Amino acid sequence: MNEIEEYCKIIINKYNLPISMPNIEINYKRHRIRGTAMYNGTLIISDCIFEDKSIFKNTIRHELAHFAAYTENGFGHGKTFKKWAKLMNVKETNFSYTRKKWFHFSCECGKKWKARKKIKIKCTCGKLLF
């Protein structure tokens, strides 16, 4: 059982949530949205939540609050979601996330860059960097 499944199981049992274990998918391309609770029972999590333990825990609880709200025909961040979120101590967030990690690149010619993800960069001197 991976870290996400373990934490989901703990929270579902601790708060006696009226849901079953969601199917979990990790998205390695999405970085602005931490997680999504799909109506089909799939929990999509951005890989960036693993960079900070408190963000990880809050994101999982937030998405599980959505699943619990779905059982009562709740959707979005309405009254039913807020009831479950309050029960599970979900912290207020702006529901988006900016990666803390920067990748630094430098060329032999002395030019330097930084980017949020590893990309191919072509320096003005013509050299291709990774």
How would you describe this structure to a colleague?
It contains 3 helices and 7 strands. By secondary structure, it is α+β, with helices and mostly antiparallel strands. The protein folds into 2 domains: 3-87, Zincin-like (2-Layer Sandwich); 101-130, no CATH class. The strands form 3 sheets. It has a 3-stranded mixed sheet, covered by helices on one side. A two-stranded antiparallel ribbon has the order 4-5. A two-stranded antiparallel sheet has the order 6-7. Strand 4 (103-106) and strand 5 form a beta hairpin. The two termini are 34 Å apart. The model has no long low-confidence stretch (mean pLDDT 85).
CATH second-level architecture of the largest domain: 2-Layer Sandwich
At the fourth level of CATH, the homologous superfamily of the largest domain is Metalloproteases ("zincins"), catalytic domain
As laid out across the biggest beta sheet, the strand order is: 1-3-2
Arithmetic mean pLDDT: 85
From N to C, what is the helix and strand string?
A: HEEEHHEEEE
Distance between the termini: 34 Å
Text of the CATH class of the largest domain? Alpha Beta
Within the CATH hierarchy, at the fold level, what is the topology of the largest domain?
Answer: Zincin-like
Count of domains: 2
- Rg, alpha carbons: 19 Å
The secondary-structure class comes to: alpha+beta
Record field, number of beta strands: 7
| Unreliable parts | none
Into which percent range does the helicity of residues fall?
A: 25-40%
Shape: elongated
How many DSSP H or I helices?
3
Report the β-strand fraction as a percent range.
15-25%
Largest beta sheet, briefly? 3 strands, mixed
